[in-house]
Amino acid sequence: MSVVCLVYLALFIHAHLSFARPIARISGPIQWRMIKNSTDGLGGGSCRTGNPIDDCWRCDPDWESNRKVLADCAIGFGRNAIGGRDGEYYIVTRDDDDPKDPSLGMLRHAVIQEEPLWIIFDHDMNIKLKEELMMNSYKTIDGRGFNVEISNGPCITIQSVTNIIIHGIYIHNCVQAGNAVVTDSPHHYQLRGISDGDGISVFGARDIWIDHCTLAKCHDGLIDIVYGSTAITISNNYMFQHNEVMLMGHNDDFVADKNMQVTIAFNYFGEGLVQRIPRCRHGYFHIVNNVYTGWEMYAIGGSANPTINSQGNVFIASDDESTKEVTKRESPDGSAEWKKWNWRSDGDLLLNGAEFTPSGNGTSGSYAKASSMVARPASLLTNIMPSAGVLNCNIGQKC
Prior knowledge:
Blueprint: H1 3-15, E1 17-19, E2 30-32, H2 52-57, E3 88-92, H3 107-111, E4 117-121, E5 125-127, E6 133-134, E7 139-142, E8 148-151, E9 156-159, E10 162-167, E11 170-172, E12 180-185, E13 188-192, E14 200-203, E15 206-211, E16 214-216, E17 223-226, E18 230-235, E19 238-240, E20 242-244, E21 246-248, E22 261-265, E23 268-269, E24 273-275, E25 279-281, E26 284-288, E27 291-292, E28 300-303, E29 307-311, E30 314-316, E31 327-330, H4 335-338, E32 343-346, E33 349-351, H5 381-384
Parallel strand pairs: 3-4, 4-7, 5-8, 6-9, 7-10, 8-11, 9-14, 10-15, 11-16, 14-17, 15-18, 16-19, 17-21, 18-22, 19-23, 20-24, 21-25, 22-26, 23-27, 25-28, 26-29, 27-30, 28-31, 29-32, 30-33
Antiparallel strand pairs: 1-2, 12-13
């Protein structure tokens, strides 16, 4: 692709930002929506975009009656996360919270139940939790059809559980809490220490899928995945206005994270992000078909020899000459060590002077454990990712 074409692509992406569906009681975040409709190059009248997740369910005008189809649409390392697919629907009717003894109709009451549940909402809600929301296994939180926020309090903790789907929630301004009793099942509660203040904290969990959420302005990370967690997909999310965006891996000495596999796909990393998009330790990370619109320090970082497979992303550096580099490595032995780590850029578009420093032996076989899906060409992102973040889903219409 010529330099002229790359410049036009960068300008096209920057020029076609628009406002998302309004968020009740607060100003809505900016949501990226490409002005090209999904029929470009795909045959007249087609609603398909080439994004395999969205093409699986968004063409259905009766999506509300077929909500659980979503559970069969995951891709990447978290593709086996079924959430509450095999359970009943639970309708959240209240936006208040009781960390120790939640009542029927509260979000907290729904997520602690033992049986699988597909959790939906009956009106717009801005839920301010009093303590971190401790989730039980086999749960889906599905915000489609309403403006659902979790904000201005502690947020979501996915700890030592499996099969969780979180879709269509605006999570922002999360804070620390703790030194309090918090229930985590219908018959058990525990004294929790101080939480980190993450938007979503994944700790010792597996088979997790976080899709089409909008996240911003939390105390610590927007999404942190640590302590041996694995089989995770983070897709179609919009993240903005935050410093340390995503941490993958507990610490450099925690070798259980060598089994971690995370897919980060079709996300839009927007304005005001500084670093850790993501920061990785030990494991295998497939960073594929995302759009980065600038970073104030670096985009992808790591320590303790993670494998980074960056494919088909669009990296648009800011105009600041000191922030052109996409990557950052932290190693006590410096480049003598990190030059052996397997980090590759395969088919990425590096725009406005963006630079990706690869390392390792460069063979395809070294990335087998860090490959989870087929990357689309980065030049097609204007067609295959028409929206990221919380969707405007109206009942009776295609979402």
